Every structure is written in structure tokens, then in C-alpha cells.
Fold each of these.
Amino acid sequence: MGIQTLEQFISKQQSKFPTAKGEFTHLLQAISLAAKMVNREVNKAGLADILGKQGKQNVQGEEQQKLDVFADQHFMDALEKVGDCCYLASEEHEEGIDLTHQTFYPVGKYMVYFDPLDGSSNIDANVSIGTIFSIFKRVSPEGPLTMADFEQTGRQQVAAGYIIYGSSTMLVYTTGKGVNGFTLDPSIGEFCLSHPNLLIPSTGRTYSVNESNYNQFSTAIKQYLQYCKDMDKETQRPYTSRYIGSLVADFHRNMIQGGIYLYPDTMAYPNGKLRLMYECNPLAFIAEQAGGRASTGLMPILDIMPEELHQRVPLIIGSDKMVKMVEWFIHEYS
Ligand code: AHG
Ligand code: MN
Ligand code: MN
Ligand code: MN
């Protein structure tokens, strides 16, 4: 049967909807193009003058890395040019960019939120990093964007995905009909279907959390972490601990092998550290589409009504049974 490229795959999906105008296809092509450019830079990061800090802080108060800025510019540029978007928002910008006000490129109906480079503190150490994206469709028909366009929960995402720049580079995405993974074949410069219909194992043996925050965790989370370490033959505990510190990489490993990732609230981050619109929502959509679960511990991530662009929420995500177990601990100890 041979290989199937991302472009061929998207066109085939699109052909099932004869009324579709191909805008969504273009959008994913733009994301794939920007991803290839970032991949090229990430791969030669040690050679080029691209490693290290930019010398500026972003809106999050974090030190921006040169690759944060490079990735942000390339995704912004590709998404603006494609002409199918009306709004773009990135971790690296305080405000989202309303494209309905500009006349240079055509304006479309899609709103894209993205984390151009996830795990950027790991870049200089050659550790896997990623990009995360979330796509909504505006609900107002045309003209200026309205509150209703911004007040959409994660369940209303039309697509979401991530790219992992790892030992190989992969693009994983969903449009709400399952999850498919594509591996970049550098010899032809194409993402090729390698993981059709990805499913997260319903349970696993890996837990992933920044345990240096242990003293700041709630009793429920402390008790759950003790549960992970306790001996039990039936559930194969103690579990094993893995924490890369790149959300995309930790999430991807758990997608493939089964496991759970937690970033609960701490003293430094009373609502958790991770951002709803461009980290938690897209990964939650993928997790649910792959048969997994994503929760704050009290409610599904996908049901949170956003209040602000850079809003942070606690994230517990991964294998269905493992996330349910944390929810049980939270219910029991709160
Ligand atoms: P980003 O690099 O996009 O700012 O995201 C950083 C996030 C995420 O990738 C990672 O899982 C988490 O921060 C790690 O935080 P800690 O260093 O506090 O564990
Ligand atoms: Mn950052
Ligand atoms: Mn991130
Ligand atoms: Mn980032």
C-alpha cells in the first residue's frame, strides 16, 4: 500500500465532505510547514546561533529562548498568510491578534491558539520539545469578533494537535474523529502516517509530576503519590516515575505506553502552571479522542469556560483509569 503523507491523508478526509471548501486542509498544511521549519532549526540548534536566551521575558514572566521566538514567528507567519484565520493567539504574546482588522491577507473563520515551543527550558540540553495547537471556528457569522467567539469551551474545538521534536519528529492531531500520528521522514520532508487511530492504554505504570513541589500539594495529591509508590501486585505498583519537563514529551510517552501526567496547583501556581487555551485544551481533546481522560480533578478540562487568554488550570491527564483514580482521591480527601 506504500506510505500515506499527511497531505494525502487530509485530502482523503476532506473528500468525504463534498461541500467543504478546503480551508481546513490549508490550515493544517500551514501548521505542517511551520513545524518543518521549526524542526529544521531544532535539529541544528547546537550548530547555529539559535541556542540560549533571547534576553527578554514573555507575558508569563518567563525568560524567552531564541527558539521560542523563532517558532512563534514561523507559526504566526504561516497561519496569517494562509488566509483562513480570523484570530491567532500564542503563549508568547500578551494579546491575541485579531485578523479581522487587517486587509493584507484574506480573513477566514478559524481561531488558532498555540504554544509555539513547549518545554523551552529544555532546549539547551537537547531534550525533546514540542508545539501545541488548538483550533476553533468563530461562531459569529462575520465582521468583528464577538464575546461569543471567545466564550467557547474546549469541547467546541474543531481540531487540536501537537508536534514533538524528539528522537523522531511527529505530528499528532484530531478533528474529533479519533487521533492520528504522522512521523516526519526527513529524506522526503513529509509527515507520513505512522500511528493510525491512536489509543491510550486504559491504564499504565508511569506517573509524571514535578515532585519537587510535593510539600505544596494538597493532601489528596500527596496521598495519590503515596499510592503510586505503594506495593501491590495486581496493579503492578509501585509505578515508575518519569518526568521530562516538556509537557508534550511527557504526554506523548503516556499516549503510547499508558500513564498519567499531573500538574496540580502549588503555592507558586495556585491554579496550576499550565495554560488552558494552548496547552490543556488541545491535549485534553486528543486524550479524550484517544480513549483517555483529562481533568482538573474536579471537572473535565474540556468543560471549562475560558475567562482569559493565558488562564492557568490544574491538569491531570492520561490513561482513563489512572485519571479516575486521582479524581477519586480528590473527592475522598477534599
Ligand atoms: P513552556 O516551555 O511552553 O513555557 O511550557 C513549560 C511547561 C511544560 O512544558 C512543562 O511540563 C512544565 O512547564 C514544566 O514545569 P516545571 O518546570 O514547573 O515542572
Ligand atoms: Mn514558556
Ligand atoms: Mn508549554
Ligand atoms: Mn512555550
Amino acid sequence: MFDNLTEKFDTVFKKLRGRGRLSEENIKDALREVRLVLLEADVNFRVVKDFIAAVRDRALGQDVLKSLTPAQQVIKIVREELARLMGEGEANALDLAARPPVPVMLCGLQGAGKTTTCGKLALSLRRQKRNPLLVPADIYRPAAIEQLKTVGRQINVEVFDSQPGQDPVKICEAARAYAELNGFDTLILDTAGRLHIDSELMQELVRIRDSLEPREILFVADAMTGQDAVNVAESFNQVLDISGVILTKLDGDARGGAALSIRAVTGKPIKLVGMGEKLDALEVFHPDRMAQRILGMGDVLSLIEKAQSVVETEDAARMEAQLRKDGFTLETFRDQLQMIKKMGSMEGLLKMIPGAGKAMKQMKGMQPPDQEMKKIEAIINSMTRRERHDHRILNGSRRQRIARGSGTTVQDVNQLIKRFSEAQKMMKKMQKMGPKGLKGMMRG
Ligand code: GDP
């Protein structure tokens, strides 16, 4: 995410840090470079202008120039102003406090990720113990209704039964009545999208809004389309008075323009972000954490939350029981790998650790961790159950068979087994020591 932007900020800041004292001219030079970096990332030029003015006013204050670490102070100001640009200090959680069923309307252009995001939102609400009903209100593309039904099946959330050709307002009203009768507390309305803004469509969305009075009207914006997304968001906002934005495809190589401009241009907060095609790839948007990520400072808080949400699943409990029963074997090791994979790509995770993104770039030629993980999994999958439970029986011919089966080499297999048996020895030692011994070891 925003790799290019992060890299360029890094270059500007490195220059700044390289000097001991800073003159006004040094700061002005750096800000000129920051301005270019932002424009190249497709940030709206008025937004850039205001941003630079705000940073300049604060950075040229005497306190900064006289401080012992002027470069750090400037970087801190940039971070704070970036966060403010994205809405720092505003509430960005969905407001669903109303008499159920609470309607939430998603709108946006075709291909922005509306239907996928409806599914992600439903899954996330269910994890928060709500009971959502998905409502397909795009009656122009029969495939759209089918797509939402498929999404609903994947996450086990009911999809209201609508037919192509029905009036979308009638569908939404019928869905509300159905939800009242059947105990659904949230309606997620998947509205129609077009390739371009179109007044007929807008009127239809207005009719849905006026009839259902959604608690949230969320514009779904594709981050990859940069300023176009910002302009379209503003058009939707003018007609519909949206309550917030969901920015999708932030996992791709978006340049950052949409994320950095949309709040300032529309005055509406980014509430959620899509971080992948999978239905659990939806995150709450935190402007301060995003600013840190953009500046390559990592995002440890999000990493911890992510780990917690995965660890809270039933899988974790099941795995713990398995570990207790079988000990640390290749099979439990594979389960652990799969759990880590659920948290997203290893590379994505590593980037949340401060400095790790940069460190990874420097390790050129190294196998990317995700591919390494896939290889390990393939090798373990090619083993029989017995072999997974006791790797000591893996003789030469077994190793050859496993290498063939997993499309790897015998060296790969040997290396994995060697590393695994070292890890196993260490686990055994740690178990013997118990929690007290472990603490002693950490202190030492
Ligand atoms: P709609 O036309 O607005 O309903 O868009 P869809 O939900 O059909 O999504 C269009 C495409 O974008 C699909 O291929 C989705 O898998 C993909 N997509 C949606 N959200 C994300 C995201 O956050 N990241 C990535 N990488 N792809 C996404």
C-alpha cells in the first residue's frame, strides 16, 4: 500500500535528518519536495496547497528551529497534518444506534467493490453480534443479484429474495418489513451502480434514501482510481448527502491520492477500508495509523488488533487442544502457518512493523515470505499423517517422494525438517522450564 509514496517521503526526510541545524530555507526546500510527492501521488492540488501551508506555518515557528531535533519536529508535524487531513479526531465508527432494522445504504460506481463490500460489512457486523440482512437493490444487472447471493452463501448471511425488474424502492421496503418480522437488526442495501454518474440512477438512489432513511449512506470508492474517485464521491455527496466513505482496494498499488483527498474535498470521513478480495478484508479506518503507515513508521496497533481477532476464533481453541494432545508436530506447525495466513499476507503483516517495509526492500533476492510459506505448506501437505506426527521416520526415499509430490527439492525438504526439529527441541526445553523459566530466559 502506497509504497511509492512512502519511499519518496523517506528520501525527503533522510535529507532533512542529514543536517544538524535547519534553516528556514532548508524547511522550505523540504516542503517543496513534499508538495511534489503529494501531487505525484494524485492528491487534489487544492488539498496539497492547504496542507503545505498548514505544515509551513507550524514548522517555521521558532520552537521547531530552536529545538534540538528540528528534523524530527518537522516530520512529526507532517505526520500530524496528514492525520488531520484524513479526519483525525472525528468519529469514524458506523452509527447504528437506532430502532432496528437499521438501514445502511452502499452506493458507488460499478466495479468500485460495492457488492463485495456489502458482504464484508455483513460479516463484520455479524462478528459484532448483529444480525444483518443483505438486500440486492440492483435490478438492472441480473448478475448483480446472483453475485450478492453467492457472497451471502459464503458467509452464511441471508440475502433478501428480489427479482430483476422489480422497483428497487419497493424491494427495500419489502426487505424492511421482512426484517422486522424475522428479527434482522440491520439492512445492508446493495444499490445499483453505473459506469458513469447518471441522473436517472441518482434519482433512484434519492428515492431509496427518502423512503428508507438509512442511518448510514456510505459511498464506496475505488482507491486505485485516485482523483476520479474523489470527484465522483463529491457528486454523490452533493445529491445524497453521504455519511461516509468506504475506500476499497487499498491492498493494491493505489498511489494515495484518493485516501489523502477524499475527506478534505467531501468533508465526509473515510470510515472503513477494503484490504483485499476476501470477505474478511475490511478494516476500520484510523487516520493517525494511516499517516504512520504512509510515512513508513509501521502500524503496530493494527497488527495487534488483527492478531487478536484471529486468535479469538474457535480455530485457536481447537489448535491449543491439539497442541496439548500431540505436542508440537509438523501437523500443528502447519495449522499455525495457516492461522498466520488468515491474518493476511506475510508481507502485508511485516509492513505494519516499523521499519520492516524498508528492511524487506533491502533484502533483495530473498524469497518473499509468502512464497516461502507456500513452499513449507506444500511440503507438509505431501507427507502422510504418520510422517507429520513423527518426522523421525523420514528417511531418504520418503524425503524424495515428498519433494516430488510438493514440487520442491530434497534440499528444501531437508532444510524444513532440520529447522523444524530445532524448533521442536526449543519448544520442549521451554515447556520443561514452564512460565517462570521462560521469563528468566527473556530477562537474561
Ligand atoms: P461492484 O460492481 O461495485 O459491486 O464491485 P464488486 O463488488 O463486483 O467488485 C469489483 C471487483 O473488485 C471484484 O473483482 C472484487 O473482488 C474486487 N474488490 C473489491 N474490493 C476489493 C479490495 O478491497 N481489494 C481488492 N484487491 N479487490 C477488491
